[in-house]
From TrEMBL:
This protein's name: Glycolipid-binding domain-containing protein
Domain of life: Bacteria
SUPFAM superfamilies: PA1994-like
Pfam families: Glycolipid_bind (PF06475)
Length: 189
């Protein structure tokens, strides 16, 4: 399976769950990719801004994520690093509860749903678990998120995250970037 090259930039509008916007930039990095972005939102009467840098290797396995969050309580930073085989460190300390995760998923971001799609390269009708190191927007805590992707068509995937009681159909562009994540985000550019 081959995806179209990534654009230099993309943007999403947050919908329903929160009001806000995300902008991301894509650059080649050591055979893989670096994704740099920012997302801002108002959610449940609280505001936040999250800046991130994510690096993936040639197989689209997440190798690191630097995340900074700004809220009324101040600025927080966290650094996640993976050995590429599913072992993680968070801020320099081992995080065994994330063992087996090959992707990072930022609560604040629509773009992170492209990581497992690129990494898994599923054939139509095939599905696979894609547990991720899930980083919360407000406090940047990291936890395991069990999720599953099934390729429903050329540009659609059925997505499930049971802990959040989420099951929906995600629509992607030819570069495997989200166009529509029902209740969360739509592509603006």
């Amino acid at each position: 399976m081959t995806f179209a090259p990534l654009p230099e930039t993309a943007a999403w509008r947050h919908v329903t769950a929160r009001t806000g916007f995300e902008v991301a930039y894509f650059r080649p990095h050591e055979g893989g990719h670096r994704i740099e972005g920012c997302t801002t939102a108002v959610e449940d009467g609280r505001t936040w801004a999250v800046d991130y840098t994510i690096e993936v290797d040639t197989s689209w396995t997440t190798r690191l994520a630097r995340v900074t969050s700004r809220t009324v309580t101040g600025t927080r930073r966290t650094f996640l690093e993976s050995d590429g085989r599913g072992r993680w460190q968070v801020d320099g300390s081992p995080a065994p509860d994330l063992d087996g995760c090959l992707d990072v998923d930022l609560e604040s971001s629509a773009v992170t749903n492209t990581l497992p799609v690129h990494r898994l390269r599923l054939a139509t009708g095939s599905g696979a678990p894609a547990p991720a190191a899930y980083v919360r927007a407000l406090d940047l805590s990291a936890e395991r998120l069990d999720q599953h992707y099934t390729r429903a068509g050329d540009d659609t995937y059925d997505y499930a995250a049971p802990v959040f009681e989420v099951a929906c159909r995600l629509h992607y562009d030819p570069s495997a970037l989200i166009l529509d994540y029902p209740g969360l985000a739509t592509r603006a550019l």
